[in-house]
Amino acid sequence: MLMVAALAVLSMGARPAAAVDLTMYYPVAVGGPVTKIIDDMVSRFEKDNPDVKVTAVYAGNYTDTMTKAMTAMKGGQPPQLSVLLSTDVFTLMDENAIVPFDDLVSDKAWFKEFYAAFMANGQVDGKTWSIPFQRSTIVLYWNKDAFKEAGLDPEKAPASWDEMVEMSKKLVKKDGANTTRWGVEIPTTGYGYWMLQALAIENGQKMMNEAGTEVYLTAPKTVGALDYWVDLSRKHNVMPTGSIDWATLRTDFLEGKTAMMWHTTGNLTAVKDAAKFQFGVAMLPAKERRGSPTGGGSFYIFKSASPEQQKAAVKFIQWMAAPERAAEWSMKTGYVAVSPAAYKTKAMEDYAKGFPQATVARDQLEHAVPELSVHENGRIYKFVNDAVQAAVTGSQKPQEALAAAQAQSDRVLRAAK
Amino acid sequence: MTNLATPSLIPERRARSQAWWNAVNAWLLLLPAAVLLVAFTHWPILATIRHSLFITKRNGNEVFVGADSYQAMGGDPIFWKALVNNFWFALGTIPTSIALALIMAVWVNRNMRGRGFLRLAYFTPTVLPMIAVANIWLFFYTPDYGALDQLRGLFGLGGWNWLGDPSTVMGCLIVMVIWKEAGFFMIFYLAALQQLSPDLDEAASIEGASRWYTFRRITFPLLMPTTLFVAINAVINSFKLVDHLVIMTKGGPNNASTLLLYYIYEVAFTFQDSSYAATLTVVLLMLLSAIALIKFGYLDRRIHYQ
User: Fold this and answer.
1) Which pLDDT score, from 0 to 100, does residue A1 have?
2) Is the model's pTM score more than 0.95?
3) What CA–CA distances, in Å, run from A111 to A124, A344, A384, B204?
4) Is the predicted ipTM greater than 0.95, yes or no?
5) A191 interaction partners in chain B (CB closer than 8 Å)
6) Residue from the list A74, A245, A378 with its beta carbon closest to the beta carbon of B271
7) Looking at the partner chain, which of A91, A240, A382 has a beta carbon nearest the beta carbon of B161?
8) Which pLDDT score, from 0 to 100, does residue B6 have?
């Protein structure tokens, strides 16, 4: 025991005198060995940069990670950088927690390397507060074998809302009272607001203003979006009633309990590795238009970090976001690589040739809209998630549920104006 | 510490200084406990009450807002939902888990084969980590694959979304908590049963009292101090549940399983609104104080201690 302690002290002393220690919190919201991938990337970064030591801490889902980071900050021991929801930007600014990257990098051309759709969420008041990392859009996964069995063209995913209902009806399989396969599942726990936003966008409705001070939950087209969602289960009987769990939906799909699912592209590699059937990935079906919100996490640097730490953090982020690494990250998880350059790397081009599903989420960026992001984000998400759950469980009509969420949101956002 | 000399044999002055020393001694002995009590109970209570009357601005300044937070709480539907949920949760868990604990204790107090194993089995839920317990029960409740739905399948019934349906989620939590608590309370009853003098049982049987009559008129009344102790613990536990909610439901769907302490956690750490969290905490505090008052003011006097 004493030996171990002595060795630890020695090895600490043996590090270069100028070494900078960084702590990073990061979330995992998808399947697959994500912590292993991160640990591997971090240790390679440390090998390239012996003067920086990064402690990467897995901190739960996005909400948990944000909670942990904010609590650590208030407790006086914040991390120096973190991967948090790109939409946490207003909250982090309001709490005076982060520094804009403009103050830390000399070459602003770097910002232009990334997809504009991903940068949009992190740019407020003309400054760049976050750098995209594990970014996503929602995509539709479909089970080609199930399509074949139901007499549908296995190569053709539904392109419109109506088509999704029609196809789903054919895909539902029953065994007495028991439904052994559902047509489609859209998750309602965890990120219900995200799914609702996708439906609202497709219905031609924005959910918030750019300043992050207003939400539009009672707009007729937002209500229409939730109506459609609820109808899938209660009118068309092609989706289970009650709430559908974000975390177990992937298993439902892999087990053939549902023929289609709406989920983040971040799950793509986990699905690919585990699926025992042919599956396809498509853009979300359209009502008035195609569309999905962007989603996922970005890098933030905390204000409380020392100037050396902030510099080292930028170095780390630039290393992680470089095209080769972005491509590697995308191939290993399914997240969208954050820059066009990443898709031009040899490795990514080869990969996409053999597995064209890998580029669907990127192609969908053209139709993407920034994710719902306002002041008091945590609260607003809760109100919208509650409304979604109230509607899908049948305890309130979509109109009522959203009206309640709007009233609560208005009250909370009044303070932010 | 006892003074062996009789007061009449020592001078008045010495007696007084002895009393003084006794007092100092007593206070010194009490001091560590008193410091802990003040530091971790009284001071935080006062600080919480104070904090609920202020809000902290972004620049760190505190502003006095008086009862504003309490007013906001009155109009907060989630708070009321959590309070009502907590009431049903307490009502659902406390009486049943106590009754079960008593039955199990009487059962394993008898001489029989496998008694040790049975006691161990009843106590196991208590020693499992909370997070593990939640994960075990997720296995029961998961729609379609879960143990409950597998069972329903045998009878040709379809899957049921136990935790995803507002009408069943609270029942599911109650069953799980009873399973966990009953074994814990059983230990106290078992200890109490073993303290009871067998003479009483013998006397009753000589008088020709039936076993049920003996239990009802002798054993149960003698167990009342334990029942009270267990009941207080059950009340506290019913307001203390957070971990399982985090793992299993996150308070959903649509707050159907939100309990007061979970809501406080959410407001304080997810929304980072510490002053509103303080306001909610004061309510929790008042509820628990009221229960304590009932205990000491009313129940305690009606209980026979040996």
Assistant:
1) 45
2) no
3) 14, 18, 32, 88
4) no
5) none
6) A378
7) A240
8) 55
